[in-house]
Amino acid sequence: MSNPDANFRSDAFNARYEKRRRAEWRFRLYGRIAIALTGGVLFLLIGSTLLQSRPAFIRYEIKVNLAGEVRDLEALHAAVEADLSTHFSNASDNAQMRESLRSFISVLGIADFSKSRKDLLTPQRAAKIVRIPISNQADHYLKNRRKFGVFYKGEAPDIGRDVPVLSFLSDGVVQAGPDGTRYLLKMPVPDGLAGRVLALKQTESELTLSPLEIVMLEILREGGVVTSSFNTSFFTHADSTQPELAGILAALIGSLMIIIVTMALALPIGVAAAIYLEEFAPRNGVTRFINANINNLAAVPSIVFGLLGAAVLVNGIDVALPFTDISFRLGGGMGRGWPLVGGVVLALMTLPTVIIASRTSIAAVPDSLRNGAAALGATRFQVVSHHVLPKSLPGIMTGSIIGLAQALGETAPLLLIGMYAFIGDAPDSVSDRSNALPVLIYQWSGRAERSFESLTAAAIVILLLIMLVMNALAIWIRMKYEHKSQA
Amino acid sequence: MILSLPLSQSLILVLAISLLAYVLGRARAIYVAQSSGRHLAALPGYYGWYSALFALILAGIVGMLGWVLNAQDGFVRLAMPIAAMLGAGVSVIRISARFKSQERVEALIGGLLFACGGVAIMTTLGIILSLAFETGRFFGQPDVSVIEFFTGLEWSAQTSAAFGAVPLFFGTFFIAALALVFAAPTGVFTAIYLSEYAQPGTRRVVKPLIEILAGVPTVVYGFFAVLVVAPVVHNLADALNAGLAPLTGRDATIPAQPRNALSAGLVMAVMIIPLITSLSDDVLRTVPGKLRNGALGLGATKSEMMKQIVLPSARSGLLAVMLLAISRAIGETMIVLMVAGDRANITLNPFESSTTVTVQIVSLLTGEPEFENSRTLSAFALGAVLFGVTLLCNIVAQHIVDRQRRQHVQS
């Protein structure tokens, strides 16, 4: 008799066993890699967006002391210039420096700023400290100082590129030009900068600011005139072509109107449809057809709903009766880019989600409840309205809120119904041209100025935050309900 | 119009009239009962509900009819409150002690519920009719032919010069296929790992994370694609070209553009991973436990059980999942709109820009579109094809899933 163990100790067995073990390990590894990839992308997505958005929440301003009467734009310009000039002893007679100062406050001349400009004007002779948003280029420099240049104590190391090097002495700044020339810009240098050397990382042609402007910005910053603060205008302004003035308020209001219309339509219709299908519908072909329909509708691409909105709600369908001269237009008449149209389109899109969630929730109500109520003499409608609906409401709300959050981020259908144009103010009503937050994100992401990159990321952060809050609300409702039903 | 009402005020007026109808109906029911000395046929509230619903439904019908038949806006806004008033008046007058208001109210609500169930059908019908109608008008244009649309290799609809949609169909399926190549293994393996290997703790962490990925708006994915993925892909192409230059002697062996199909495919893959994961999870769950137990009982390892028993038996279900994922990918708009470019060309080079049906629909319908010209109408023809293909994918997938479920129930 051979050893029964021999088969399980042979080399062939060991090799097979080892192979199978490795195959198992590899299989498990593939799963781990898949999850790591997915998680990594999510991390990268959220992380890069957050990182990108940071500069948009900060805003650099120039603090100006306005003395005397300032009645109009020209006077304001002059007053600001005069005040800023006090920080540079030789600025009043240096045209180049005056021009630089003007460029920092270029925002004063922008039409979108006219509302805020009124607050800056001082009719009486009292002195007043005002804060003016700094120009976009200066703002960009201040937010990315490290990318533009590095400060050194004493001598700057040889960088090896033809880039400007600026030495801050006590009596002014020495600028070394790319051709080796050195000239002194006479100006008082604050203590914090004296004795330092600023080596810029870009050549003069690559810089969006001149070396002189950079010097002046550094001096103003060290002197406490240029300060950073939270960018409130991002939340209080409508869209603007100027990144320093662009905000999300109008788009946020537009999105709010859209979502209210969506909710007002999708919620009652969806719940009613679910009640009908779950409680009253006979089990026949019509009901099966409706069911199949809802499932298919849930998978229709959102852009098709946009086409439906554009054709039926906005334009209307021209019908010509065959063999006659009669033709008429069905539907239409709603304006392009109305929140009402967007809301209706998104409601139709969200409807399947609401119906499916509501049906699941209604089906989960135990039959004993229905039978009990019916035995006590309730009609079928009373059973539903007094017992089934209240019991399933938390589940319905959870599903609906998640559906609405999805609708909030939907972009393509809104583009098709005419929400793509530049809209400079918030809509007055649901029948007014409007913008929406996701559409604004799309528009901003395509704009050329680099500052819009961070603004886009910031708008995304706000959109994701709103969706997060909605989802948290949904989860909270579900958890609260679950605890209750267990008790 | 002498009296013009804004829409919102008109609606508020209708609601106010309905409320009044409730109060009046209830009051009249009580009064009638007292004056005639009879018992009411239902609780007084039902009389109020009857009047209010009657007013609301009448106003709703007038509003819908007015909008569909394109009556003058001001007229409709005025007609709705008037209809509500009429409805309230008639219904309140009809109230008598013998009037069975509860039955009537329940019949009305039943009708309303049925109508709401019909909204889904109406939506589908609306989509099909409007797409079919505008597509019909598109093919009726003198400069368009059906054959050219489905077989033509040149697309320049912006100038109404050529309507050969093959490059668009190609681009759409190419990008969807790229997405699927990355997403299918990742999604399926994630589902397998989560259901077979992961500790409950890991599952509790990973599942919500994947759900977050599913909830991210596509415009956010688009921004991510433009800012993070596209530069990396473009640099990759540059590196490849630099490496290939000595071999081929050309600067750019692989033509590459900043906006390219690969970036769109990669990011779209991320978008559809959650869908594939959750659907594959469902499909794997439908495989009967006795098959699993049998495999494990015969000494198979978990991976052998998955590879040799569970996956083959779930093969058709997984096919359905892939069909649904493709259907989602070809209907996706924002990612491709932002990162795929808009050059209608047929190329298998993923570093070149490519365009899709959805991108063309958006670019044809933005700008002030006139519904009369073939340029705008072509968007609807594309939409009809998109709708048809996604619908087909879904119906086939649904059919496969149903068949598999029946098989497993029988076995």
How would you characterize this protein structure?
The complex is a heterodimer of chains A (487) and B (411). Chain A has 487 residues and is α+β, with helices and mostly antiparallel strands. Chain A is 56% helix and 11% strand. Chain A is built from 17 helices and ten strands. The longest helix of chain A has 43 residues, at 11-53. Chain B is an all-alpha fold and 411 residues long. Helices cover 77% and strands 1% of the residues of chain B. Chain B has 15 helices and two strands. In chain B, β1 (155-156) and β2 form a beta hairpin. In chain B, α7 crosses α9 (261-286), α11 (302-313) packs across α12 (315-331) and α14 packs antiparallel against α15.
Mean pLDDT of chain B: 88
What proportion strand of chain A?
5-15%
Helix content of chain B: over 70%
What proportion strand of chain B? under 5%
Summarize the SSE layout with pairings.
The complex is a heterodimer of chains A (487) and B (411).
Chain A: H1 11-53, E1 58-66, H2 73-85, H3 95-104, H4 114-120, E2 128-133, H5 136-143, H6 145-148, E3 149-153, E4 165-169, E5 172-176, E6 182-186, E7 196-200, H7 211-222, E8 226-230, H8 233-236, H9 249-280, H10 285-298, H11 302-315, E9 317-320, E10 327-330, H12 339-363, H13 367-375, H14 380-408, H15 412-416, H16 437-445, H17 451-486
Antiparallel strand pairs in A: 1-2, 1-8, 3-7, 4-5, 4-7, 5-6, 9-10
Helix pairs in contact in A: 1-17, 9-12, 9-14, 9-16, 10-12, 11-12, 12-14, 13-14, 14-17, 16-17
Chain B: H1 7-36, H2 44-68, H3 73-94, H4 101-139, H5 146-151, E1 155-156, E2 162-163, H6 166-197, H7 200-215, H8 218-248, H9 261-286, H10 289-297, H11 302-313, H12 315-331, H13 334-339, H14 357-365, H15 374-410
Antiparallel strand pairs in B: 1-2
